[in-house]
Structure formats: C-alpha cells, structure tokens
Amino acid sequence: MSKKIGLIIGSTRPSRISPSIAKWLQARVTQPDLPVDLLDLATIDLPFLKDPAMPADHQYTLDSTKRWSEQVQGYDAFILLFPQYNWGYPAPLKNALDTLYQEWQGKPVSLVSYGNHGGFQAALGMQLVVRGLKMPLLTNNLQISLEKSWFDDQGQFTDVDLALTPYAAEARQLGAELRRRLI
After folding, report:
1. How many helices (H) and strands (E) does the chain have?
2. Dihedral angle sign, alpha carbons of residues 151, 116, 126, 135
3. Which Gene3D superfamilies match (predicted)?
4. Does domain 5-182 have CATH number 3.40.50.11810?
C-alpha cells in the first residue's frame, strides 16, 4: 500500500496566497512513489469545536468530524502550510488539529510558515501544538520570507516560481526526508 502526504493549507482568508505556495510546494515535494495531496481548510470547512466529547475520547457525533477523521487517517505524514498572523498561526488550522487527537499521533510533520520574516513566531507556537499531538517534527521546515515586490495590486504573486526559487532546494530536501521516513 503506497504512502501519502497531506499538505494542509492552513489559511482560509479570501485574499490568501497559500494556495499558490501550496501548489508550488506540492510540485517540489512529491516523489514518484509518494504523492502529496492538498487539503484546503477553506473547502473542508470544519465548525469550531462543536463536537461535545473530547477529541481524545474518539466519540465523534458530527458528520464533519467523522469525515475529517477518515480523511486524516488516510495520510502517513503531513505538511502544515500557514502564514503568521500577529505572531501566531491561523485559528482554522488550530481548530482542524484540535478537532481530532489520535489521528495525528506518530505521523511525521513539517511546518512551512510564511510572512514578512518567515513566520518564525507562528512556527515556534505550532511546534508546541504538534508536540502535544505527539507528531514527530521533521528536520526540514521552511520559513518563507515574503517581499512586497513579489505581489500585484491584489496581493497575489506575480510569479510564484520566481519568488520562491530561493526555497526550492529546501522543498526538495523536505520531499527526500519524507521519502526516507516513510518508504
């Protein structure tokens, strides 16, 4: 049975750039025998912690939680892609993680943050969260520092490939590390 990576797009803002970064990253991390699927929290649309039981009890009553649990169980490792918001990570990403518990345990994870200074503070905070979920943190974790010159008047990349070229080697190393861990 082949192994699969889930790349979770952790921002749901309408003006987000994370889908562009996610597609760029997916193309560089994917290996011939190790596919990377994009999991967009904007379309998964989980309610904020509405299931009455603690996630650790695995007593899900909501269909949305049951679907999310099944989806997460289908992956062997994860890449969390998220921007830094006021030195933190986006609430929808934290909610997606907190909605479940057992499903995350033991699955390797890489943190890919971005912001004006690479999203360093958000990545620090997220390290605590994944540690609490008992997810082993990979050694390759990208921090993408954004530059205003990369964006058009709507705040979108003018050329994502050109902008992210300095991070291409790290992204390929992440793919190689995932392959070593899983295959």
Report:
1. 7, 5
2. positive
3. 3.40.50.360
4. no
